[in-house]
Structures are given as structure tokens and as C-alpha cells.
Design goal:
Elements (H helix, E strand, L loop, with lengths): L2 H15 L3 H7 L8 H44 L3 H31 L5 H23 L2 E3 L12 E8 L8 E6 L2 E3 L2 E4 L1 E7 L2 H4 L1
Parallel strand pairs: 2-6
Antiparallel strand pairs: 1-4, 3-6, 4-5
Helix pairs in contact: 4-5
Length: 206
């Protein structure tokens, strides 16, 4: 094949690859604007892009909410991590208070028989009271505080009624005696107060 024949064949191939006027006309209207088919394709792609963008935004928002929820759970865990330890420590506080009460009663009995309590007994009581105050200070520093119960209206969320006593001296369903103190840890009840609740006498009901 001569060089001239090769050039002729190449021009023929190029001519086949050039779109015809009819093909160009199918993609444009009379004014040269994109045909309705092309506009539909652009509209479809734009709609799909908007859908994908919305999906990405939703996933991003869900992930942010997940991160915040997990952070709240971590903060909550840290906040109440020592709850079990403090609940067990309350029994030590109870025993110290019982010892203080018992020692106080003993000193009163001794005072009735002779002037002044023995120095060793008074010194022991002072030591127990000091330990008791130090433990309460430590608990307070960690946001553990007693639940107010004495002479308060009975609240089943804070108090545990052990028994009821009839009396007309206070309103019905009032805490008249605390058998065991209740404590709160931050805004959570650590232990309910065990209490005796007033009850209106039968004759008053009539």
C-alpha cells in the first residue's frame, strides 16, 4: 500500500468517527440548547446528588449524637464510680454513731451516781466523735450528703417506712423518728432513710 493509499484510508476512518448532523441535532434543539433528554439526565443526576448529600448529612448527625451519648455515659460512669465504696462506708458511719450514742447514755448514767465521767471514757468519746466528723467531711467532699428526714413529710423516693405510730401531735404521714440516716450521692439516692411515720389516731378519723 502506497503512502497515498494510507492517507486516503485514514481520512475515511476519521470521517466515520465524526458525528452526523442528525446525531448532533438529537442532542440539541433548534436554538442550540441541550435536548430534553439531556436535561432529564442532568435533573436525575442532580436529584441523586441531593439524596446522597442528605444521606451523608444524616450519617454525620447520627455519628455526632452517638459520640455525645457515649461521652455522657463515660461522664456518668466516672461520676458514680465510687458509689459502691461509699455505700459500704456508710455502715462504718452507722457504727460510729451508735458508739457515740451509747457512750453518751453511759456518761449520763455515771453522772447520776458521781460527779463527772471518768477521764478515759470522755477521752474515748471525743476520739470517736472526731473520727466520725472526719469521715463525714470526706463523704461531703465527694458529694455524699445526709437525706433530710426528721419531721419531714414522708417521701417514698427518699424514705423507707419501717412502721407507723399513731399521734395527733404532727400531721399524718410525717417522719417522727429516724432509725437509720439516708444518704444521697450527687443527685442519686445512695441509701433511703429508715423512718417511723406518724398515723392519725382512729378517734380523730371519726
Amino acid at each position: 500500500m502506497t503512502t497515498e493509499d494510507k492517507i486516503t484510508e485514514k481520512n475515511a476512518e476519521d470521517a466515520e468517527n465524526i458525528p452526523s448532523n442528525e446525531e448532533e441535532a438529537s442532542q440539541k434543539d433548534e436554538k442550540g440548547n441541550p435536548s430534553p433528554a439531556s436535561e432529564n439526565e442532568i435533573s436525575r443526576l442532580t436529584e441523586e446528588l441531593a439524596i446522597e448529600k442528605d444521606r451523608v448529612l444524616r450519617l454525620s448527625a447520627e455519628f455526632e449524637n452517638y459520640k455525645k451519648r457515649k461521652q455522657r455515659e463515660i461522664d456518668e460512669f466516672k461520676k458514680f464510680a465510687n458509689e459502691t465504696v461509699f455505700r459500704q462506708l456508710l455502715s462504718v458511719v452507722d457504727n460510729l454513731e451508735r458508739a457515740i450514742t451509747a457512750a453518751g447514755h453511759r456518761n449520763q448514767e455515771e453522772n447520776q451516781h458521781k460527779e463527772g465521767a471518768p477521764e478515759n471514757s470522755a477521752g474515748l468519746l471525743d476520739g470517736v466523735e472526731m473520727i466520725h466528723k472526719e469521715i463525714l467531711t470526706i463523704l461531703k467532699n465527694f458529694h455524699v450528703s445526709p437525706v433530710d428526714a426528721q419531721d419531714q413529710p414522708f417521701d417514698h423516693n427518699l424514705h423507707q417506712a419501717v412502721t407507723q405510730e399513731e399521734t395527733s401531735e404532727v400531721p399524718d404521714k410525717t417522719v417522727i423518728r429516724v432509725l437509720q440516716k439516708g444518704y444521697a450521692f450527687h443527685d442519686r439516692l445512695l441509701r433511703p432513710a429508715m423512718v417511723v411515720v406518724s398515723k392519725k389516731p382512729a378517734q380523730d378519723k371519726e
